[in-house]
Design goal:
CATH topology of the largest domain: Aconitase, domain 4
CATH class of the largest domain: Alpha Beta
Distance between the termini: 30 Å
CATH architecture of the largest domain: Alpha-Beta Barrel
Helix content: 25-40%
Radius of gyration: 20 Å
CATH superfamily of the largest domain: Aconitase, domain 4
Structural class: alpha/beta
Shape: globular
Number of domains: 2
Number of strands: 7
Largest sheet: 7 strands, mixed
Length: 198
């Protein structure tokens, strides 16, 4: 997993609430054995709505998504996170996020930032007024710098922060203790030879 320290990117304003994971990554697009996650992102909206925000040239290379309440609701579709990251998005800013989407983000290197609804609404207004403006997320400082230069603090659980900063998921963390695990297993076999072994 790619570590997340700081990231500055063009911010996409998506003025909708309750966007679910099937809208982000349609299930029909995942039937391929090797799905194109970048192509998958908001596939239906990009095909059906000519003025959809990701069809606009100023948002061709986004790094941030600023969106509405309850983004990522619905199924536990990890592909929603993969599609966002394949498109270049490393941070989603919203007043609230779907619980499973939030957890999937943390496990895959996408920073989920929850800010007050009025702050997010102001950011989206600024981004509409200045298409192509950037936002910076600083995980170490736990701040987001908006397009107007205003700095907003956010909270994140300390373990999740550590995992993002070091670019580890739970499997990677467990594997980092491989020498200690092997030493324990060797010692246990010597001390308890009556126990069955693998």
């Amino acid at each position: 997993m790619q570590p997340f320290t700081t990231h500055t990117g063009i911010a996409v304003p998506l003025l909708k609430d309750d966007i679910n994971t099937d809208q982000v990554a349609p299930v029909a697009a995942m039937r391929d054995m090797n799905p194109d996650y970048k192509k998958m992102l908001f596939m239906r909206a990009r095909a059906e709505e000519k003025d959809f925000v990701l069809n606009q040239p100023q948002f061709a290379n986004p790094g941030m998504l600023v969106t509405g309440q309850n983004f990522g609701a619905g199924s536990s579709r990890e592909a929603a996170v993969w599609a966002l990251m394949a498109f270049g998005v490393r941070c989603v800013i919203a007043p609230s996020l779907g619980d499973i989407f939030h957890q999937n983000s943390l496990k895959n290197g996408l920073l989920p930032v929850i800010l007050p609804a009025e702050v997010v609404a102001d950011m989206r207004s600024e981004l509409h007024a200045r298409p192509g403006a950037t936002i910076t997320a600083d995980l170490e400082a736990q701040t987001v710098t908006g397009p107007d230069g205003a700095i907003h603090a956010f909270t994140i659980e300390s373990f999740a922060k550590h995992m993002l900063l070091t670019g580890q998921d739970e499997i990677g963390l467990t594997l980092s203790y491989d020498p200690q695990i092997r030493a324990f297993e060797t010692r246990q076999r010597a001390e308890t030879p009556w126990l069955p072994t693998r």
